[in-house]
Amino acid sequence: MSRIENYESFDAMGLAELVAKGDASPEDLLETAIAVAEERNPKLNAIVIPMYEEARDAIRRGLPEGPFRGVPFLLKDLHLGYTGVRTTYGSKLFEDFVADHDSELVIRYKKAGLVSFGKTHSPEFGLTTTSETDLFGRTSNPWDLGRTAGGSSGGASSAVAGGIVPAANASDGGGSIRIPAACCGIVGLKPTRARNPAGPDQGEGWGGMSTAHVVSRSVRDTAALLDATHGPDVGDPYCAPAPDRPYLSELDAPPDKLRIAVQTATFNGAPTHADCVTAVEAAAALCRELGHEVEEAALDVNADVLGGATRTIIAANIRATVEDRARALGHEPSADDVELSTWALSEMAGNLGAADYARAVRTIHGVGRQVSHFFERYDVLLTPTMATPPLELGRLSLSRADDPIAYVADLNQTIGFTSLFNASGHPAISLPLHWNAAGLPIGLQFAGRFGDEATLLRLSAQLEEARPWFDRTPPR
Fold it and tell me: What are phi and psi of 435, to 5 degrees?
C-alpha cells in the first residue's frame, strides 16, 4: 500500500477512476484518507466516530463493482444506521445506541462501492446550524478555526473542505446541507422531497421537510452520487418524480436560456449582511454573462405562519424521539437528557395538540403550492444561502444560555433563505461562488421547480466552469 500524494487533487469520481484503471487500490485510498484524517481532524473535530476497522474489513471482504468503488466516504452521525456502529444523533441520550441493521441509504452507498470509514459531527438531533454538542464538542471551519462549519452537516462539510474526503453524506431539514456547504466553500444540494430514501426506520423526516444527500467539492460528484442513491425504497409512503435521464448526463450540455429571479430579502425577515448582497449581485451578473435572463423578484411568504408550522412539526418529532429513547432506557425524559434548546422544543410540544400538528402540515403543503406557482414564472431563484457570513463558534450552540434572543436572531440569519424549501419540498443547491474580504466563503443558493434537480445541476456545472472553485482550498 502507498499513500496517494496528490489525493486532494481528485474529486470522488477521479479517485474512482484511479481504482478502475489500476493506478491505485481501495486500500491505498483508504489508508491515505485515514492518514489525512489523523493529521487534520484534531483541529477540525469533523469525524467523531472513527470506523477504520469496519472500512478495512469491507475492503477485505470485497467491494462491489459500483461507480465509486474504493472511494473513501463519511456518514453523518444522524439517523443513518450502519450495522455494529454507534449512531448517537449528537446526543447523550443516544451515546450508547448501536445499529443492528443498515439504513437503505447506507446499503446504496455500499452498492456504489463507497468505503465509509467514519461518522461526522452533527448538533443534537440536527436542531441547529452549527455542529457543537455537549457530547463531542465543537467542529471548526477549515477557513477559520474560530468559526462554525455550519450545521447540521457541519462535520461532513468540515471534512470535505478540510481535504479528508472529496464528498460526504449529509442531510437537510432546514438548510443543513446548504448552510454548512456555504460556510465551508463547497457544493451542497438539497434534493426534492423524497428523492432519496429515508427508510427503513422512518418514512419521512420532520413531516417531509428533511431529506438526505451529500456535500462535495464538485458538481459532477453531487450529480453522480444522486444517480447512485435516488429512487423509492420498498414501502416508502411516497416518492419524488422520476428523472428523465441520469443526473450525470445532464452536465454534458449547458442549460437553455433560463429565467432567473433574484432575491436578497430573507423569507423570515432577518437582515441580510452586505457581503451576502454583494455575492448575489456578482452571481447575478455572471448569470447574465452566460446568457440567462435575470431580474429581481420577491417570493413572499407569511413568515410568522410558516415559522410556527415548522416549529410545531419539528418540536413534535423531537418530543417523540426524546420520550421513546428515554423510556427505552427505563426512565421518563427530563431536562438532564438533552441540551437546553432541545428540551425547550420538547416542552413546547407538550403544549400542542393533534389538531395543531394537522394545521402545521396543512400550512407547509399550502406553502409548497405557493412556491410552485412562483416557479411557473421562473426557472430558478437565486438568493444568498445564508444572510450572514459564517458566525463565530458558540453563537448557535443549543446549550447557549447567555442570550436566548440573540441566539434566535443568529439562527434566523442562517436559515432565512433555506428553510422555505424544506417546507415546500423543492430542490435547492448552494454553490461556492464568492469569498468576502476576510477570506470567508459566501454561498449562493439556486432553487428550482419541484422534481427538477436537472436544471439546477446543468446551471451549476455551467457556473463551475465559468468560475472554478475546486482548487480554492483553506490554508492547511
Answer: -130, 140
DSSP letter (8 states) at residue 242: P
**Alpha carbons 53 and 265: distance in angstroms, whole number:** 48
**pLDDT value, residue 2:** 76
d(CA 283, CA 262): 10
Q: Which residues pair with 381 in a beta bridge?
A: 261, 447
The set of cell numbers assigned to 157 is 462539510
Is the Cβ–Cβ distance between 64 and 9 less than 8 Å?
Answer: no
What are the residue numbers of the active site? 76, 152, 176
Mean of pLDDT values over 105-132: 98
Query: Is the pTM above the cut of 0.85?
Result: yes
Rg (CA), the chain: 21
* Dist CA 210 CA 340 (whole Å): 22
Q: What is the pLDDT of residues 225-241, one digit of tens each?
A: 999 999 999 999 999 99
Domain extents in the chain: 7-303+361-466, 304-360
Q: What is the pLDDT of residue 314?
A: 98
Three cell numbers at 133?
A: 454538542
Backbone angles phi, psi at 200, to 5 degrees: -90, 0
Distance CA 326, CA 417 (A): 34
Q: What distance in Å separates the CA atoms of residue 255 and residue 408, rounded to the nearest whole number? A: 39
H helices, E strands: number in the chain: 14, 15
3-state secondary structure 374-437: HCCCCCEEEEECCCCCCCECCCCCCCCCCCHHHHHHHHHHHHCCCHHHHHHCCCEEEEEEEECC
Sheet containing 47-50: give its strands across.
47-50, 115-120, 72-76
Place of cell 435516488: 230
Is the separation of the CB atoms in 429 and 248 below 8 Å?
A: no
**Residue reference for cell 410558516:** 306
pLDDT tens digits for 162-192? 999 999 999 999 999 999 999 999 999 999 9
- CATH assignment of 7-303+361-466, among 3.90.1300.10, 1.10.10.10, 2.60.40.10, 3.40.50.280: 3.90.1300.10
Residue pair 178/172 in contact (Cβ under 8 Å)? The answer is yes
CA 241 to chain centre: 21
DSSP states of 201-231: S-S-BGGGTBEEEEEESSHHHHHHHHHHH-S
pLDDT digits (tens, 9 = 90+) for 19-60: 999 999 999 999 999 999 999 999 999 999 999 999 999 999
